[in-house]
Design a protein that fits this description.
The complex is a heterodimer of chains A (332) and B (278). By secondary structure, chain A is α+β, with helices and mostly antiparallel strands. Helix content of chain A is 27%, strand content 32%. A six-stranded mixed β-sheet of chain A has the order 6-7-8-3-9-10, with helices on both faces. A five-stranded antiparallel β-sheet of chain A has the order 13-17-14-15-16, with no helix packed on it. In chain A, helix 2 packs across helix 3 and helix 2 runs parallel beside helix 4. The longest helix of chain A has 18 residues. With 278 residues, chain B is mostly helical. Chain B has a single domain, classed as MetI-like (MetI-like fold). Chain B is 77% helix and 0% strand. Chain B contains 13 helices and no strands. In chain B, helix 3 packs across helix 7. The chains are: A alpha+beta (332), B mainly alpha (278).
Chain lengths: 332, 278
């Protein structure tokens, strides 16, 4: 079960009334990769996904699967498995009937479809709950069934529309890891839509950062984080401080801000708040010139600073030598 | 955990109103039932004769009347076709409003209320005048009542179906089904309709209730439906006619309560599903 299919968006434009949702949107999702569309609400990421699924028609442009133009093809003939934000299991069908639904539509024989559904349910570790109905499942279980249902039809492309956003934090991480391992194992080309940058960086082969209907940057997660192509990407993906140095303003990640015990020669600052997050400490410090900076440090027992403490602040620019040169944020 | 909620008692004045209203509706029905099912002269129907000579003779006579069965069958056939027409027209409209045309919701709701404000006589005179010239065979057919009854039942049926469709996540279910390879008709029959079963039953019961109780239009168009038969047979067999009226009243009340209960159950089910989600 290894469908290596490429999905391309070519110059897609889509408006809803006066609102432009996508403007000349170009993206190629490589065969077997998990591409995340990341951006704030209203940036056009869900519209792009719905155009791929066939639920919206673009005003102009093309959607291609491999070399085949599927722009005008009806949704039910596109072979795109989709998992939705809200639980979309059919309430009147049991887990096994939900998972075999797509195969029944393809008129696959009953015993074959049951075997395939059971295999998929085993992969999402729900093979013991086949007779249950959706209202008897937790949110995480429902999304895993929805994932199994979408993958059972062996889709050309798997479309995931914020599938984790209704889940609580622990389940979200579990289901996220499950999506990653399943799509890698099955080699399914996948588009994952989210507004959660941590989720995007954690799950993706590549990330497409979008804003106002246009692509800001496409790249592997580390490149997006370390070498943001625009001010928007720099500030949207991860946390960022704006630091004024003489006449320059530069963008500095909180983990690049290093705090040390106060000395007479260093750049002095006062810790305004210190919060403990298990493996890390988060600080907000005020420099003596009034600038406020966020800092993150690995938690080492006995070394934490408390609010009100005087500290020295330095910035570890070395770790961002590459990114500094590409920062849109470095302005005269 | 100690029980903190105090049980609220229904105040006396409320009980008084409930009892008075119940008597107001129940006493005439009881009087009807006594007239229909007791072989006692009307002048003697009092407390002393409450348990005397109860009989189903009047009703049996009516069932044996050769005109009764055709009237009953006609009403049942018209009920069936009215239900089918309702589902063919009102269901797609409700689906359209709930999936693609939410902005027209208030317009459609207002339109479905029209039968409340247009009296049946106006409906028949207006539509009848038009049809008589254009398609004269239409008004000659007994089935010409079907569209009139579908319109009459519309305020109830549209709301019932709309409530059913709003209680499910319609758009997501349709899109999930389509992404799994189901065409729109298959999505409708395999996903949407099974999930609004309670609303469909409710709309069916309400339509039958309307058809079984409608007199004016059938009378104006001279169609021998059950209500008309009952009205005309009052002279020949008053006991049988009233007996049938009592039975129909009971039946339509049962159907109405069944529809209400189903609607409540539907709402409760959708709450359970939502509860499991959150």
């Amino acid at each position: 079960m290894n469908r290596l299919t490429e999905l391309s968006f070519e110059s897609i434009t889509k408006s809803f009334g006066a609102t432009v949702a996508l403007s000349n949107f170009e993206l190629v999702v490589r065969p077997g990769e998990l591409m995340t569309l990341l951006g704030p609400s209203g940036c056009g990421k869900t519209t792009a996904l719905r155009i791929a699924a066939g639920f919206e028609r673009p005003d102009s442009g093309k959607v291609l699967v491999g070399d085949v133009d599927i722009t005008a093809r009806p949704a039910h003939l596109r072979r795109m498995g989709m998992v939705f934000q809200s639980y979309s299991l059919f309430p009147h069908l049991s887990v096994i009937d939900n998972v075999t639904f797509g195969l029944k539509m393809q008129r696959v024989k009953r015993d074959v479809s049951r075997t395939r559904a059971m295999t998929m349910l085993e992969l999402v570790k729900l093979d013991g709950l086949t007779a249950r109905y959706p209202h008897q499942l937790s949110g995480g279980q429902q999304q895993r069934v929805a994932l199994a249902r979408a993958l059972t039809i062996e889709p050309d492309v798997l479309l995931l529309d914020e599938p984790l956003s209704a889940l609580d934090a622990k389940v979200r991480t579990e289901v996220r890891d499950e999506i990653r391992s399943l799509t890698t194992r099955l080699g399914t080309t996948t588009i994952f839509v989210t507004h959660d940058q941590e989720e995007a960086l954690g799950i993706s082969d590549r990330v497409c950062v979008m804003n106002d209907g246009v692509v800001e940057q496409v790249g592997v997660p580390m490149a997006i984080y370390d070498s943001p192509a625009s001010d928007f990407v720099a500030t949207f993906v991860g946390e960022m401080n704006r630091l004024r140095l003489a006449n320059l303003e530069t963008l500095v990640r909180p983990e690049q801000v290093v705090l040390g015990p106060a000395t007479s020669s260093g750049t002095g600052a006062t810790v305004q708040s210190a919060t403990f997050h298990g493996s890390i400490m988060r600080y907000i410090v005020q420099l003596d010139d009034g600038q406020i900076l966020k800092a993150i440090a690995a938690h080492v027992p006995g070394t934490a600073f408390t609010a009100g403490t005087r500290v020295d602040v330095s910035v570890n620019f070395e770790s961002t030598t590459e990114s500094k040169s590409t920062f849109g944020g470095v302005t005269p | 955990m100690a029980k903190v909620t105090r049980e609220r008692r229904t105040p006396l004045w409320a009980w008084t109103i409930i009892v008075a209203a119940t008597l107001f509706f129940a006493l005439p029905i009881l009087a009807m039932a006594r007239f229909a099912f007791q072989r006692v002269p009307v002048a003697l129907l009092g407390r002393d004769t409450l348990f005397d000579r109860w009989t189903l003779d009047g009703l049996i006579d009516m069932f044996q009347d050769p005109e009764f069965r055709p009237a009953l069958w006609l009403s049942l056939r018209i009920s069936t076709f009215t239900v089918l027409l309702t589902f063919a027209v009102i269901l797609p409209t409700a689906l359209w409003v709930n999936t693609r045309a939410a902005r027209y919701r208030s317009l459609v709701e207002t339109a479905t209320m029209l039968p409340y404000v247009v009296p049946p006589i106006a409906l028949v005179v207006g539509a009848g005048g038009a049809f008589r010239d254009l398609v004269p065979w239409f008004l000659r057919s007994d089935y010409c009542l079907v569209p009139f009854y579908a319109v009459l039942a519309m305020p109830f049926t549209y709301r019932t179906l709309d409530t059913g469709l709003r209680s499910i996540d319609l758009r997501t279910l349709i899109e999930a089904s389509r992404s799994l390879g189901a065409s729109m008709p298959r999505t409708l029959f395999r996903v949407v309709l099974p999930n609004i079963g309670t609303a469909l039953s409710g709309a069916t019961f309400l339509t039958i209730t309307v058809v079984l109780g409608e007199f004016t239009i059938a009378s104006l168009l001279l169609k021998p439906t059950l209500p008309l038969y009952m009205s005309y047979s009052q002279g020949r067999n008053p006991q049988g006619a009233l007996g049938l009226a009592v039975i129909l009243l009971g039946l339509t009340t049962l159907l109405f309560f069944a529809a209400t209960r189903l609607r409540r159950r539907g709402r409760a089910q959708s709450r359970v599903t939502i509860g499991a989600i959150t």
